[in-house]
Amino acid sequence: SSAALFASLKQGVSDDALVHRVGRWAFNESRARSIELTKSSVEYYESLFGELSDNAKDLVGWLACHPQPLAIEELARVSGVSVGQITDAAEALLPYRIIDVADTGEGRWIEMISDHVRGGMYKALRKKDRDRIHNRYIDDFGDLGDDSIGYFEMMAHHFAKVRRVRESLIMQVRAVTRARRDRDVFALRRLCKAGIEYVRRLRSATW
Questions:
Q1: Exposure check for the chain: N or C terminus, fewer CB within 10 A?
Q2: Which residues is 84 bridged to in the sheet?
Q3: Closest to 155 in 3D by CA, of 166, 141, 176
Q4: How far, in Å, CA of 6 to CA of 4, rounded?
Q5: Half-sphere exposure of 150 (CA within 13 A, CB side)
Q6: What whole-number distance in Å separates Cα of residue 89 and Cα of residue 2?
Q7: What's the predicted TM-score (pTM) here?
Q8: Cβ 83 vs Cβ 107: under 8 Å
Q9: To the nearest 10°, the Cα dihedral for 56, 76, 113, 6?
Q10: Where are the beta strands (DSSP E) in the chain?
Q11: Within a 10 A sphere around the Cβ of 5, how many other Cβ atoms?
């Protein structure tokens, strides 16, 4: 994409791999060979997001707001977008390498390719769009009756993103309770670390 090209050139200048000499730009070959595009800048993702079609932007929004893989049929139900439109948008996004589509034999699943990319594209979304999507996930998934660790984590995530602090903390506590019951030490460690970090960010929040 042009966004990737721009970010590469910008990083090249920053790393002294692309230098200005006698009225023209030239690569410092030894440094240029070691350039790795980190995709860390907000500008990169905003530029990339701006290149996408409306359907692709819509799909990226739904995936960037959700922390877990989704079955395409499930995403269609939540978003109100047809399976065909989701599939077409996913095909258009594959060259950008920001999403992953997997066929498990029990259906097709879709997600952002990494937490890093998810975070970058999330910041490219308008706040009102993020809030709308999080609230739609809450409305749709809130009555599932699931009592798995992953479900409680997912609901805690969406509640936290729309600043519903009490509900988010309740879901985190339920996740910890379930992890203790299952004796899942790794989940307990992850949940406690995430919970402590979340509480630290609540110092200026309204309860």
A1: C
A2: none
A3: 141
A4: 5
A5: 5
A6: 19
A7: 0.77
A8: no
A9: 10
A10: 18-21, 24-27, 70-71, 99-103, 108-112
A11: 11
